[in-house]
Amino acid sequence: MAHPKNDRSAIWPLACIYSQRFNAGKVDREATLQEFLKSVTETIRSQNVTEMHKCSAKAAKLRNVGNRHFLDRKFQDALACYNESICFADPNSDQLAMGYANRSAVYYEQDEYEFALLNIDLAKKNNYPEKLMPKLLARELNCKQRIAGGRSKNATPRTRMSVNVDTNPRIPFLADGIGMNYEPKFGRGLIAEKDFNPGDIILEEKSELCGVDFNLSYRNCNHCSSRFNYSLIPCPTCPFMMYCSQECLEQNWNLFHRFECCVVTKLYSVSSLSSMMHPRLFFYGLTQFDEDLRAMMKYCEKEINGKFNPLDLDYTNPNRLELFKAYHNTQPAVDPENDHFFKILACGYYVMYLKNPAVNSIIRTEPQRRFFLRSLLQYIRIGFSMASYSIDARGRAIGTLTPIDSLINHSCDPHAATFICSGTIKVVLLRPVRRGEQIFTSYGPVWWEEESGNKTPFTCRCVYCDRGPAGRRWRALIDRDFPLGAVDDLQKLHDIALRMDFNNAAKLNALKQFIKKHARHYPERNFGTVLDSYRMLLVAMNRTDVEALERARAWAEDN
């Protein structure tokens, strides 16, 4: 039975179908890749997923839902509905222009005048109805007057969070004095070649590949993952992909969306999560080989150099072919508990991509198809092993894949906090790192939040999770008493946190000085509380910075 046209809620992902089958014992988890392919092909045939297309009637209905949210002052819900309406609207239709105009009304009510003006401009450029134009022009004038009168929200970052130590001459977004090492226990990792301090921002890396959860596709850029305050523009052809800029739209199309666009509904029916990032790696590589599949096969079918060092590349003038080779030469961690799911995803994407004539015209012969299937599985394994994820309170994920950040391993006893925001990954040290230490971040659980439990989808090998003598000795340190001097300083920190005359930068500095001064008492339960406060304040300050930068960008694009 075909899914109802233009009803994405009817999509039942292949991954969910097979999860039920695995749990019921109806499918053998140990089946070969070819056996999985046969089963998946039959399942897809029975599902008969039809493509969704632009539809102005659907766009009008979604816009009306957004209007009801707007009247109820549920502005975030209104923006999401307007974005979905914009995505479904036919290009050059009045529905597209009215969606932009409706968005501008939301921004006006939120005092986001820069974004309001940007969307008014988009409406005017997309055939906004003349009979409604006077109201739009009045809003435009009001926005400009309020900005001129100083009533705009802040559009200048107060504390730009960027690398604040000397940088690597060949990797300008990475701190100098950081190298890669290889350990049997953790595989590849980043190691400090000199001492670093709390507050050092050691990495600010732009995302090269990302995957956006199906339920965030109208809220985040499908190329860089930036939210840009919901002010996104649609793919002109499909009703799913949105972008924060024309540049992201064009780059996304050139690198991989042209291979997805006419089958994007089918691809989302494989998995509604952010896993589309993984097959995109194949097309990212194919594009760098100028769509010469034979040349790509010749390179990729050689033995993988699992100890390939991405830090050896020159990032002052990035070469995407070399970046692809860095990804390809990653030896993914073995994950026997999930490999059957990886095979299902690979087979599902294989079947769906080959329904696209643009892909079918390139991958024609049986050897090429076998290579395609094997590559999809390999890149899914690599992606799940390397990717960083940002997960919201509703479990919706954005995955990003970058050559440097992917080297930082997880520990429940992290040195650093990682922030994924506006298409950039930032790594900030929470506590000192000494020369020779491997630098760890956390993929979720940390030791000072014991009640959260270990939520990693893999077996953690950090010192906190070590059940042997070394782990027991380390955990025993947590319950030590803080020295009196440290207790006094802790009370001073608490007092500073409550003071309204101290801004966030001053509070952050106080936390940083405490961590540096009392580092010798780590780990200790109170110390964990300080680290958590430090991390949460960094989150808040980074968010404020990003919002200010986005307002400045919106203003620049409109002028």
UniProtKB/TrEMBL annotation:
<feature type="domain" description="SET">
    <location>
        <begin position="176"/>
        <end position="444"/>
    </location>
</feature>
<keyword id="KW-0862">Zinc</keyword>
<dbReference type="InterPro" id="IPR011990">
    <property type="entry name" value="TPR-like_helical_dom_sf"/>
</dbReference>
<protein>
    <recommendedName>
        <fullName>SET and MYND domain-containing protein 4</fullName>
    </recommendedName>
</protein>
<keyword id="KW-0479">Metal-binding</keyword>
<dbReference type="Pfam" id="PF00856">
    <property type="entry name" value="SET"/>
</dbReference>
<dbReference type="GO" id="GO:0008757">
    <property type="term" value="F:S-adenosylmethionine-dependent methyltransferase activity"/>
</dbReference>
<dbReference type="GO" id="GO:0008170">
    <property type="term" value="F:N-methyltransferase activity"/>
</dbReference>
<dbReference type="InterPro" id="IPR002893">
    <property type="entry name" value="Znf_MYND"/>
</dbReference>
<dbReference type="InterPro" id="IPR046341">
    <property type="entry name" value="SET_dom_sf"/>
</dbReference>
<dbReference type="GO" id="GO:0008276">
    <property type="term" value="F:protein methyltransferase activity"/>
</dbReference>
<dbReference type="InterPro" id="IPR001214">
    <property type="entry name" value="SET_dom"/>
</dbReference>
<keyword id="KW-0863">Zinc-finger</keyword>
<dbReference type="GO" id="GO:0008270">
    <property type="term" value="F:zinc ion binding"/>
</dbReference>
<feature type="domain" description="MYND-type">
    <location>
        <begin position="221"/>
        <end position="261"/>
    </location>
</feature>
<dbReference type="Pfam" id="PF01753">
    <property type="entry name" value="zf-MYND"/>
</dbReference>
